[in-house]
Amino acid sequence: MESPQGRKRKQQARIHKPAYAKLFPVRSLTICLSFFVFVLFISSDRLPVHKGVSFRPVLRTSTLSILPAFLTGNGGARATSTSQYPPLVVEGRVLMPDHLMLIVSTKLTPPVDNLDCVYYDLVLEQAVLRPVLSVDEYHQFKSIVRCHLPPLNFSASVNLRGRQRGRLGSVVVERRDWLLRHNQSVVPSWDRVVYEAVLDWNAPIRNVAVFAKGLNLKPHREADARKFRCHFSLTDFDEHHRGLFVFTTRAISAAQETVRCLLPRGILNNPEKAKDIHVTVSRRGDDNGAGDAPLPSIAKVQNTISRQGKSGRGKYELCACTMLWNQAAFLREWIAYHSWLGIERWFIYDNNSDDELEEVIDELNLLDYNITRHAWPWVKTQEAGFSHCALRAKHECKWLGLFDVDEFFYFPHDRGQDIPGPNSLRALVMNYTDSPTYAEIRTACHSYGPSGLTSPPSQGVTVGYTCRLEAPERHKSIVRPELLHTTLLNAVHHFRLQDGYRYLDLPESKAVVNHYKYQAWDTFKAKFFRRVSTYVTNWQEDQNKGSKDRAPGLGTEAIEPPNWRLRFCEVWDTGLKDFVMANFADSASGFLPWERSLV
Predict the structure, then answer these.
(1) What pLDDT score was predicted for residue 133?
(2) What residues have CB less than 8 Å from 9, skipping those under 6 apart?
(3) Which of 458, 547, 440, 429 is nearest to 497 (CA)?
(4) Distances from the Cα of 104 to the Cα of 140, 141, 179, 388, angstroms
(5) What is the CA 275 to chain-centroid distance, rounded?
(6) What is the pLDDT of residues 41-52, one digit of tens each?
(7) Among 47, 409, 493, 516, which residue's beta carbon has the most beta carbons within 10 A?
(8) Which segments of 370-437 are extended strands (E)?
(9) Half-sphere exposure (CA, 13 Å, Cβ side) for 241?
(10) What is the tens place of the pLDDT at every residue in 296-328?
């Protein structure tokens, strides 16, 4: 019979048994099974992979963030039993300029009053809880959770927990749970990461378009695709460039932040297998040395692009795409006006808005405006966002306009001429849908100033701002998305086209874009927060002060210059105002549609 002392020693040995000793058999079995599953999964089309593909197994442990027992009370990747939240798995973390972004495998619905970010003290081995900043839908069934930046001496390996007691504070972390913190990946910099990847099925050679920061390619130029490779894996690629069981394929194009690569054969012929496969990019070395290591990545291959247009009716004739931040107050006017001109489908790329944008879009969709909001959290990536949008739109749209919420197409007309009617913009582009020559229509922009106003006009920008600069500034484009160059190279205002196609410059007598660029100061100063274009300097930075991308006479601080309300006023032009009041104002009240409640 075993003595009480012997039983006590065995019990203590079990208590102090290292965490890795318990986890090792499970990890070993998981890795072995994953290896065979992944090989069969990727290359199952009766064998190997597409030409240009290589296979390189790499051993690593998983970095999925399973919430430990001290957070959940049950040892799993779950919120507490009293929490309103489903099981939460953090798939990736990126340090952004002003917050920490977590990608969560579950779709969460705001509000998130009872969800906390959990920060781990590197010295004291304790956890501190802080409220979540915001939650956003991501890739339809996932979520983006934004947390405060970690305090000093705290790890960026932040997790989540549902709040039980309604208060914040510190939690002591058990040693076993603390060990798990060291195996969770964090992308340490938002400007060096592979952030999106999407399949392109309508290309002559099916491929994946990968979007990455940190390639440092020259703007507006095509790079040598032979220098790049894509790597596909079951697990994410962290700051140490590790991935579990990697297939490598060659790039077929590269420009700015977009690299297109071939697909492993199994994915090439079975698109459903592509979902949630991790991907990253690396640069090959020259003859004199090794290339760069793969970039850290949180990107998974997405197949969210519909391969069908309107049900039973083919593609939409005219769609529009924009990227915005906190423009909810101006969206109703922009959508209602351009829908009247004939735009049928809308792609809104939301760049971290925290206003009422979602509510406004929901209201507009109740009125059948056909708007899709796409969360695009990546900082200074407008060119890549438009490339991404063009890939989505080419399956649904014959023409795609890319312009901002403060830009309005307008058809000038003299007395005696026919006044443009409903769907006039759609009718214009339809004249060139079957053109063997033109794949882009460019329209000159007129920039409007504050027009003497010191606050936003109640009737909207088209009626309120009526004084502009005399000479046009730049242009905006409407493109045929299936005829864009394979690189998706663009300068925001226009795209590079496939060989054999060119753009058409519309004369100002036929059409212009009214750009309400320099609005009342309270509206305009928001531009100082951050510019969305990759290659345009933020106004807080002391660079390129003479550039057309900056407002003349402004410095680097959001301080209202003298006589701002009178600036940028050379020509009084009420053409669009008169047109809007004649076609949109209620005959009895004089109200415009965007002035009234939409519900």
Answers:
(1) 94
(2) none
(3) 440
(4) 12, 9, 22, 22
(5) 18
(6) 555 543 333 445
(7) 516
(8) 371-375, 397-402, 407-410
(9) 10
(10) 999 999 875 554 445 556 899 999 999 999 999
Percentages helix, strand, coil for the chain (3-state, rounded to 5) are: 20, 25, 50
Tell me the CA distances in angstroms from 554 to 417, 551, 558, one per residue in order. 41, 6, 8
SS3 134: strand
pLDDT confidence of residue 146: 96
Identity of the amino acid at 323: M
- 341 CB burial (10 A radius; 0-12, 13-18, 19+): buried
Phi, psi of 363 (to 5 degrees): -60, -45
Alpha-carbon span 377 to 104, nearest angstrom = 14
Strand duo 134-138 + 142-147: pairing:
antiparallel
186-216 pLDDT, tens per residue? Answer: 888 899 999 999 999 878 889 999 999 999 8
Residue 574 pLDDT exceeds 90: yes
Residue 198 is predicted with a pLDDT of: 93
Q: Could you give the angle at which helices 328-341 and 575-584 cross, rounded to 10 degrees?
A: 80
Cβ-contact 320, 405 below 8 angstroms? no
**Ramachandran region, residue 209 (left: φ > 0; alpha: ψ -120 to 50; beta: rest):** beta
Phi, psi of 176 (to 5 degrees): -65, -45
Predicted confidence band of residue 243 (pLDDT cuts 50, 70, 90): low
CB atoms within 10 A of CB 526: 13
Give the other-Cβ count within 10 Å of 414's Cβ: 6
Q: Which residues contact 298 (CB under 8 A, 6 or more apart)?
A: 91, 92, 93, 94, 103, 187, 193, 194, 195, 236
What Cα–Cα distance (Å) separates residue 357 from each residue in 349, 361, 376? 11, 6, 13
Number of Cβ within 10 Å of residue 418's Cβ equals 8
DSSP labels, 251-284: EEEEETTEEEE---HHHHH-GGGGTT-EEEEEE-
The chain-wide mean pLDDT, for the chain, equals 80
pTM for this one? 0.84
Measured in degrees and rounded to the nearest 5, phi and psi for residue 162 equal: -80, 135
The answer on pLDDT for 106 being more than 80 is yes
Q: Which positions ≥6 away from 359 have C-beta within 8 Å?
A: 328
Distance in angstroms (rounded) separating the CA atoms of residues 528 and 540: 7
Specify whether the CB–CB gap between 346 and 369 falls below 8 A.
Answer: yes
Q: 52 vs 140, which has greater pLDDT?
A: 140
Q: What pLDDT, on a 0 to 100 scale, did the predictor assign at position 70?
A: 37
Q: Is 239 left (phi over 0), alpha (psi -120 to 50) or beta?
A: alpha
Closest CA to 112 of 84, 75, 153: 84
What's the confidence (pLDDT) of residue 88?
Answer: 80
* Beta strands, E only, 62-213: 65-66, 89-95, 100-104, 115-120, 126-131, 134-138, 142-147, 159-162, 170-172, 193-200, 207-213
d(CA 344, CA 369): 7
